[in-house]
Amino acid sequence: MAPTSVTRHALLMDAICGAKFFHNEIIWQRTSAHNDPARYGRVHDVLLFYSKTHRKTWNQQYESPDDTYYSAHDFEKDEEGRLYRKRDLTAPTHGESLSGQYTWNGKHPPRGRMWSFTQENMEKLVSEGRVVYTRTGMPRLKIYEDALRGISYQDIWVNRDLWLNSAARERLGYPTQKPAALLERIITSSSNEDDIALDPFCGCGTAIHAAQKLGRRWIGIDITHLAISLIEKRLNDAFPGIQYEVHGTPKDIAGAQNLANRNKYQFQWWAVSLVNAVPYGGKKKGADSGIDGIIYFKPDGKQTEKAIVSVKGGENVSVPMIRDLAYVVDREQAKLGIFLTLAPPTRSMQTEAVKAGFYPTPFHGNLPKIQLFTIAELFAGHKPKIPFVDTATFRHARQEETAQQGRLFG
């Protein structure tokens, strides 16, 4: 039988970390239901939990108690009317420890177990009124309702807050995007504040967004300039004033020219991101039908329209390129066309753009139907005149001010 994807990834992680540092295979239910033909609906992914050494960071997290939790346990009231439940005061014997092997109230722990606390701490719990006894004389620990942490997370995660449905505010249109809550749970349990989180395939940046929110330092790596531009926008929207460094993206005309010479597709994807456009056809290389990117906008705040983006990284640009863009705008029933170029457009090209006419808007007047911008102008802060760019283009990943981080901890 051919190895599954999980098996292949486990073999790779065994090679990187060592099989002895494997801790868990976690089943994460990522959605509610799938109607997959002739098979059971595939609604889960598998997370592999490894550490690099035995000295791993571990912060136990708990699922907040709910009505089901309370109905599944017997609660009692003390003399002050406070609710509490009883917990076993023994634990499995480990190593050669003798600290939990003593007689208490005439009782010994069952075979293979030991008292959970030293004798000194047991006496302290008694003095605090935290120990009660069963009819047989076995001690039990009182856990008050207001101190309950709930049930520790197990290796099957089915919480709905870990889903990322099509209507989620944080969705950015990235096919492999994960919900922020999932990464927050992972990062919180496996690191402490000011630790460094590394995501070597950071995509749309959910891991580094979660790391920033949780007070961790972070490093994110991706090979596409579109991803880097998206992450920059996401971080700037969510954390105004954030300071970070970006390496490998063009910072000036020389860098843009170098990228265009090395890889025209990466240059196109990077250039369209400068005007908040998404690459046409999901970043597929090949024929583009005269379209390099699309900007969605709502001129009246309601109806979604689109602008076509055309990118030219060569040294020579000409009037036919403007005519082609105007044709594509009409063919695609778009409202605007944005022409991006490294080389300065000629006066004849600017005249041709004016000939295309104007697009009337209800709140912003008549906008040039074809707009020309050089990369230098974009670096200088000039932007296309497009009203109410739809957040579906690059949806803001705003910080949830109401998020209660304390719920992640016990």
Overall description:
With 410 residues, the chain is of the alpha+beta class. The protein folds into 3 domains: 5-62 and 153-238, 3-Layer(aba) Sandwich (Rossmann fold), CATH 3.40.50.150; 66-148, no CATH class; 253-379, Trna Endonuclease, Chain: A, domain 1, CATH 3.40.1350. It contains 11 helices and 20 strands. A 5-stranded mixed beta sheet has the order 14-15-16-17-20, sandwiched between helices. Strand 15 (293-297) and strand 16 form a beta hairpin. The radius of gyration is 30 Å and the shape is elongated. The two termini are 43 Å apart. Mean pLDDT is 85; it is low at 392-410.
- Stretches where pLDDT is under 50 for at least 5 consecutive residues are 392-410
At the fold tier of CATH, the topology name of the largest domain is Rossmann fold
Amount of beta strand: 15-25%
| Helicity range | 25-40%
Shape: elongated
Side by side, the strands of the main sheet go: 14-15-16-17-20
Nearest-angstrom radius of gyration? 30 Å
Number of domains: 3
Main sheet overview: 5 strands, mixed
- CATH domain class of the largest domain: Alpha Beta
The overall pLDDT, averaged over residues, is 85
Specify the CATH homologous superfamily of the largest domain.
Vaccinia Virus protein VP39
Specify the structural class.
Answer: alpha+beta
DSSP, total strands:
20
Measure the end-to-end span. 43 Å
CATH architecture of the largest domain: 3-Layer(aba) Sandwich
Determine the number of helices (DSSP H or I, runs of at least 4 residues): 11
Task: Give a brief outline of the structure.
Helix content is 26%, strand content 21%.
